[in-house]
Amino acid sequence: MPEGHTIYRQAREHNRTLRGQVVRADSPQGRFAAGAALIDGRTLLRAEAVGKHLFHQYDSQNWLHVHLGLYGEWRTGTPPLPSPRGALRLRLWTENVWWELRGATACEVLTRPEVTVIRNRLGPDPLRRNADPDRAYARIGRSRAPIAALLMDQSVLAGVGNVYRAELLFRHGIDPHRPGHDITPEQWSQMWADLLILMRDGVRRGRIVTTRPPHRRRSRVYVYRRTGEPCLVCGTPVRTEILLARNLFWCPVCQLRLVTEPDSVREHTTGADWTESGGSLRAKVNAEAKPGDLALIHRDDKGVAAGSGERVAVDVQGERQQLGIPWRQLRRPADLKGQLEVRGPAGVA
Questions:
Q1: Is the pLDDT higher at 234 or at 53?
Q2: 2 has catalytic annotation
Q3: 127 domain-assigned
Q4: What pLDDT sits at residue 257?
Q5: Average pLDDT, the chain
Q6: Long-range CB contacts (< 8 A, 24+ apart) of 20-26?
Q7: Which of 87, 124, 242, 321 is most exposed, with minimal Cβ within 10 Å?
Q8: Are 244 and 280 in the same domain?
Q9: Statement to judge: residues 20 and 115 lie in one domain
């Protein structure tokens, strides 16, 4: 399904090519004939995107509302008009351009009050200047639903789809199954700021790119549709499952649950913070876990984690559950200076 950045690009192109023009409209398929007649020969005042919804306001005080859904698409070109083909729901044209709409979930003419009803039921849209992230967090922060489900709920957050959902959670190391009320205000603030960057970049590029420069040559996304492929950061196979009828993608290591707060991790270590032993850097923690269940994350003052990637998976060894990072994965001893976190599945403490 096209996500918010795609609809914004479409609104921008409709404004560029149709705004201020007398627009002709018809429905070769016949399914939207009555609606097309209401806007045929009217002047388009503006096109606007809100989340995944596209609105046209005409001088007749009628509004065209389009939601592409999973299969809808717009096509455009210059005159002459091509012969109608397939299930052509709506055709718009002027002397200089034509637009064709097929397969949309919604294509209807509305009054302004009806448009207001649709807009009021949507959550804040990160691409809109007046979007309020606190309104989204008011829903997220008190919900027991998985954060992955909440991010896709358009009444919580408008415009985010499956790709942005999966990639945002990966970039912030958040288990997609984590309840919304476990997301702190600080985490949500960071996620919102990142979402602004990613979606605005999507508008600019015309496609979604979420990988950081060190990983971008291998893929433009971290986990979306990469089931079974090695994680670009830790090498663990990417997992998938169905959540609310949509595919969910995540890395089971990079997105483990946080089991110790960063400020309290030193309470779980013995002796010096970190010691070199047997070619590995190790810290003992009081945790019951199986090998591979925990991960150690190190961030320096520049926000970059130690090792070749942003997160380094570790094994649990011995009765005291040692966590180790192979020395060869560290760039230099100075990389150990910074914030330390321990991540693991729910129930590990």
A1: 53
A2: yes
A3: no
A4: 57
A5: 80
A6: 20/44, 20/45, 21/94, 21/96, 22/94, 23/58, 23/92, 23/93, 23/94, 24/92, 24/93, 24/94, 25/90, 25/91, 25/92, 26/90, 26/91
A7: 242
A8: no
A9: yes
Supply the pLDDT for residue 105: 96
State whether 57 and 96 are in the same domain.
yes
Residues 49 and 116 in one domain: yes
pLDDT beyond 90 at 301: no
β-strand partners of 324: 282
- Residue ending a domain, among 224, 250, 276, is 250
C-alpha to C-alpha distance for 260 and 196, rounded to whole angstroms:
29
Q: Are residues 244 and 281 in the same domain?
A: no
Active-site position among 2, 126, 146, 176 = 2
Domain check: are 278 and 233 in the same one?
Answer: no
* Last residue in a domain, options 78, 93, 120: 120
Q: Using DSSP, state whether 232 is helix, strand or coil.
A: coil
Examine residue 197 and state whether it is found in any structural domain, yes or no: yes
Please write the tens of the pLDDT for every residue from 124-133.
999 999 999 9
Give the torsion sign (CA, 149, 152, 155, 157).
Answer: positive
CATH number at 198 reads: 1.10.8.50
SS3 at position 2: coil
Domain annotation covers residue 243: yes
Same structural domain for residues 266 and 245? no
What's the whole-model pTM score? Answer: 0.75
| Encoded amino acid at 184, one letter | T
Total domains in the chain come to 3
Report yes or no on 349 lying in a domain. no
Of 41, 47, 29, 31, the closest CA to residue 92 belongs to: 41
Of 28, 48, 52, 310, which is the active-site residue? 52
> What mean pLDDT is predicted for residues 228-247?
92
* 327-349 confidence digits (pLDDT tens): 333 333 333 333 344 444 433 32
Known catalytic residue: 3? yes
Annotation marks residue 16 as catalytic: no
Active-site hit among 200, 246, 284, 299:
246
Long-range contacts (CB closer than 8 Å, 24 or more residues apart) made by 226-234: 232/309, 233/309, 233/310, 233/311, 234/295, 234/309, 234/311, 234/312, 234/313
Domain around 46: 4-120
Under DSSP, the state recorded for 335 is: G
